Amino acid sequence: MASLMKVTSRKSLLFCHLGALLAVGMWGGSFVSTKVLVNNGLGPVEIYIYRFTLAYLLVLLGCHSKLWANSWRDEFLFLLCGLCGSSIYFIAENNAVTYTRVSDVSMITTLAPLLTALLIGALYKTERPGKWTYIGSGIAFLGVAFIIFKDGFTLHGSEAGSPDALSATIGDLLALAAAFSWAIYSLVLRKLNVTYTAQFITRKTFFYGLITAIPFWIISKEPLSSVSTLLRPEVFSNLLFLGIFCSMVSYLLWAWAMGTLGAIKTNNYLYVQPIITMIIAAILFGKADPITLIGCLGCFLIIGGLWLGDYMGRRDSLKS
Fold first, then answer.
1. Domain spans in the chain, listed from the N-terminal domain onward
2. What's the rounded Cα separation, in Å, for the pair 258 and 101?
3. Judging by beta carbons within 10 Å of its beta carbon (0-12, 13-18, 19+), is residue 303 exposed, middle or buried?
4. What predicted TM-score, i.e. pTM, was given to this entire model?
5. What is the pLDDT of residues 124-158, one digit of tens each?
């Protein structure tokens, strides 16, 4: 009986690892899907609204018995989750891919877990990261610098279809802003995870994300695409992929994996995201989003710095 339970437990852990990897794989592909939609004339805010309206309605079907949070304070925290973890994050990310390569955006947003750890350390004295976290963060930020300034400091184009240096830098900085936004969201989420289910948190986050996206849409003055545009096979299929798989399915898989594996082991899979995006983008966009030596070096430094800070930090904590 004990051996049977052990085998079952191993299978459960294996499925959790596969679930986390599948979620990251879909998130890695989401950057490319967003770029395809932008290339078809859809605006960054418009893409966000379509994507999360679909995701919210699907989550609402399975989680609708409880409408409000337990207190107005918690309701305000859910508003912050929707603002930082949904509307600001994804609108900044969607805008970033209009300025620069999708592989760059994917790599820079991977800094979010590390920024979260640094913010926790700054706000909570009992949870300050060790020296290896700071060393790893320095290496990772060096990688970001390689990516941001890989096109130089002057205004010139590179390959046909590639962004000029100014556009690329704007896009990279928007991606960095998205990573900071996700870090703030993660801090707020720490308080809510104690009381509420993953499904309820996801539904509230999607709801307030859509509400707080309305001012962005008004300011951007983006026109809504025509029905004929939305029904194009490449547009319709990518919107379904973003709404169903990259939002609803991925969020649920991530919450399930995190509940079993823990935050550290699950977040390690985020390091795979930029590699997946870089490969898919190079296949689909060719010279407009190539795999370059500087890009590979930046990717290596980011992933290496994140891994070093996490692995060595956990090793030191076990020793103490």
1. 22-319
2. 30
3. buried
4. 0.81
5. 766 666 777 778 878 887 887 777 666 554 444 44
